[in-house]
Amino acid sequence: MSFRSFFCCRTILDRSEHGRKNATNWRVFSLKELHSATNSFNYDNKLGEGGFGSVYWGQLSDGSQIAVKRLKVLSNKAEQEFSIEVEVLGKVKHKNLLSLRGSCAEGQERLIVYDYMPNLSLLSHLHGTHSAECLLNWGRRMSIAIGSANGIAYLHHHATPHIIHRDIKASNVLLDSDFQARVADFGFAKLIPDGATHVTTKVKGTLGYLAPEYAMFGKASESCDVYSFGVLLLELASGKRPIENLSPTQKLAISDWALPLAREGRFSEIADPKLNGNYVEEELKRLVLVGLVCTQSKPERRPTMLEVVGLLKGESKEKVSSLESDEMFRLEPTVCSQKTSGLDDSSDCMSKDTGVDVKQEIDSLAETALPVR
Ligand SMILES: Nc1ncnc2c1ncn2[C@@H]1O[C@H](COP(=O)(O)OP(=O)(O)O)[C@@H](O)[C@H]1O
Ligand SMILES: [Mg+2]
């Protein structure tokens, strides 16, 4: 979509949404206003950098704090992502989704303005600049898991048309002043027309979080987000990265590391050592089990995000215990032989029995053939 057609769209949307309770109040910012808010995009104001460009902290004349995402180069692709992000974010409103304050398009400049999230991203606390401070106690981790699940469930089940995020990862879960999760970065989002189960598309996303059917065949559906979210849950529970480099040639996906431990009930070995044993055992177990069912290679075996929310909250004891008795958590080797043939199945089996990691092949395929940010 060109920038011009995006604005046509926006007008239509504005009209159709007129009077709706959740209509957003984003506005167009002038470049001058954003220059003065960010001290002319000063290096000291820089919060981070992604595939799209740099993100700067800023303060508006009313005193409110903002984060400004500034597009790096104005290519057709970048402009399309910019338009999608503004369009998608402008339409959704939920306490666990990052709100859009507005946008700016002047000359070659394309900027998106968000609420500033003072506790930055989940990534910065798990693996980045804030990881040494150990601010993610167990209570915060559980509320981040449930909050971000709620935000994604809203995109999948309540937004019209339904939205697949396509880039769920730790750097896209931002944390507000109370450490509540806000899912961000909708530039990769895909709108699903009513009645469609999936869309086939060029693969976009981040290595380590890509569902196998999406990485290999470009089949994007809600369950691809469920897979990525499962990786995120395992990351949150263990403090490990989605893919660990065991040696220069050997990598291990977090789900392949956690599954054998979960099958043997060794949950305390999965828990992030930074927690120093300070966690609620039942909740840790739930987080890990849900993370693992979400990362099953067969998309039809993964739960929906609504089910994930219920499971994480532990709403039904029966559902949680039936999760525990799922065949994927049985120790018997029959788990493998029961499955039908296909690459998807072998990824589960081989990770348990031989340590050979088919997902790794998928990932390296992704690495060579797919654009990765
Ligand atoms: N609204 C915001 N508030 C605070 N920090 C933000 C905000 N948006 C983005 N950031 C920071 O900027 C970084 C870069 O963001 P982004 O361009 O989305 O790339 P990525 O998500 O791939 O890291 C994020 O990792 C985050 O630390
Ligand atoms: Mg991001």
UniProtKB/TrEMBL annotation:
Signal peptide: none annotated. The keyword Transferase applies. Residues 41-329 form the Protein kinase domain. The gene is LOC109728658. This is PTI1-like tyrosine-protein kinase At3g15890. ATP binds at residue 69. It holds the Pfam family PK_Tyr_Ser-Thr. SUPFAM superfamilies: Protein kinase-like (PK-like). Belongs to the protein kinase superfamily. The keyword 4Fe-4S does not apply. It comes from the Eukaryota. CDD domains: STKc_IRAK. Keywords: ATP-binding, Kinase, Nucleotide-binding, Serine/threonine-protein kinase, Transferase. One of its GO terms (molecular function) is ATP binding.
